[in-house]
Design brief:
By secondary structure, the protein is α+β, with helices and mostly antiparallel strands. The protein contains 3 helices and 5 strands; from the N terminus they run αβββαβαβ. The chain has a single domain, classed as HIT-like (HIT family, subunit A, 2-Layer Sandwich). Helix content is about 25%, strand content about 20%. The structure holds adenosine monophosphate (AMP) and zinc ion.
Amino acid sequence: MSECIFCKIINGDIPANKVYEDDKVIAFNDLNPQSPTHVLIIPKKHIPSVNYIDENNSDIISHIFVAINKIAKEKGLDNQGYRIVNNCGELGGQTVEHMHFHLLGGRQLQWPPG
Ligand code: AMP
Ligand code: ZN
């Protein structure tokens, strides 16, 4: 996926402020943060969106959520609370077509979202 900006971050072709990495995922600070903590968690394997999750690759979702749990604890968000967001497709507001989960925290988040 040579055109994918997040694959370029995984390959090291584009710099990112990494906060977590293991064999299957990386997490880095969002370039345009919407809250004091705004981390993106992505699989190292290119998966365009949640639409591409099936029985054969769904284990990555639990792996991502274990990583989210670790990052939230490290950032001290676990007790105060935080939000996980996944935007899927055009009407969902997805702008980068490499599945990613937003970890937002550090301020009171409003509900419902816009
Ligand atoms: P979404 O709109 O859900 O597809 O989210 C894409 C997110 O990626 C946005 O919050 C952007 O600010 C963020 N983003 C885009 N390019 C970069 C980059 N090079 N480094 C970090 N975050 C990025
Ligand atoms: Zn990609």
